[in-house]
Design goal:
Two copies of one chain form a homodimer. The first copy, chain A, is built from five helices and ten strands. With 219 residues, the first copy, chain A, is α+β, with helices and mostly antiparallel strands. The first copy, chain A, has one domain: Electron Transport, Fmn-binding Protein, Chain A (Pnp Oxidase, Chain A, Roll). The two termini of chain A are 25 Å apart.
């Protein structure tokens, strides 16, 4: 597909257009940096926003959940969704209250769900979702049974339209404010993994795997 | 107001209802733990989800942005929004692929925007928003000018309805899977602040303030 996403009414960044990004690689890099998205959908005119797990694969976003989930059933039925992923990279502490900001990367995707029903395709999509959360884990665990597959809805959303918005760098103050005496700069923020916590029912002598020790969120 | 939120069609947690929370204190504690929400709104039937800064004050959510922002204008016009806040607390690594999960806290709020127009009320709302992101900063910075106030839209959303969903604790595996030999447990995740980065234009000899050094995201 084209390297640049088409810009239309739905995905055009209106506010601070200089922060808008339409390069497919740049939008996809933001999608690939996380595993948690917020899915927006409309029911009887009412907007709903639900957090859920996802993974990008090619030009689509994969999502999964319980076959009883309202969100999953809604997506499986082919309804329009908006999928948003946001990474906060830091607080931008300017000299004026007005110029305070946040350094962030966000990606917004528009599309419609399509259920994946074939068990082999479904299992493969679940593998991609698992590897996106915790690379290496899939090979260690018991595979889904056919009953578990039936209890799971897996949906692909083809990326019909998308854009990203990015802010980086130091504060941008009004010229006359640079003479003021307060501290200014950026306080970086990032997701960090803590010490792994063993399941209380884990048998003695089972070591923490390397892929858990090396885990880095935000990739 | 009542300590328990009313449960209706809009805010009832359907999937895994045992994870649903309707205690006002519990929902508000999640709202107070963050400064980034995802706002869902509908335009011509199309859902949009936009990340933005917020703060809770009493039984309302405060939001602000440029007077030119589509989201802000939409909210100021009194349209229905869904405001969702999610904190990821850890990866739940179970013995089966199926029982993998995420420890999280999420709050979903439904309401309608109402613009705050009075300059003193607007400045006070901006103070609350600022203190929610970086406590202590407000007293250090140049206050908004009347022109800056005019360029800013501030909106309050009365919390008409809300709920939270929470997962904590170790994996819950099928009984027969506990005999399997792989590691299982939780990998905790949290937002962490890095070393403050000075503005390249900051004058020599201005020290990093205590409130920046002590900053803790996720409160």
């Amino acid at each position: 597909m084209a390297e640049k996403l088409e810009v239309g009414e739905r995905n055009r960044v209106r506010r601070l257009p200089e922060r808008g990004r339409y390069e497919r690689d740049e939008v996809y890099a933001i999608l690939d940096s996380s595993f948690l998205c917020h899915v927006g959908f409309v029911e009887n005119g009412q907007p709903f926003v639900i957090p859920t797990n996802y993974a990008r694969r090619g030009d689509e976003v994969l999502l999964h959940g319980s076959a009883a989930s309202r969100l999953m059933k809604f997506m499986a039925a082919g309804n329009a969704v908006c999928i948003t992923v946001t990474q906060v990279d830091g607080l931008v502490l300017a000299r004026s209250a007005f110029h305070h900001s946040i350094n962030y990367r966000s990606a917004v995707v528009f599309g419609r769900g399509l259920e994946i029903t074939d068990p082999a395709e479904k299992t493969e999509a679940l593998r991609v979702l698992s590897e996106n959360i915790c690379p290496g884990r899939w090979d260690d665990v018991r595979m889904p049974s056919s009953q578990e597959l039936k209890a799971t809805l897996v949906v692909r959303v083809a990326i019909e339209s998308a854009s990203a918005k990015v802010r980086t760098g130091p504060p941008k103050d009004d010229e006359e404010d640079y003479a003021l005496g307060m501290w200014a700069g950026v306080l970086p923020l990032a997701t960090a993994a803590g010490e792994p916590v063993r399941d209380p029912r884990l048998a003695e002598g089972i070591a923490v795997p390397e892929y858990v020790k090396k885990y880095r969120a935000g990739k």
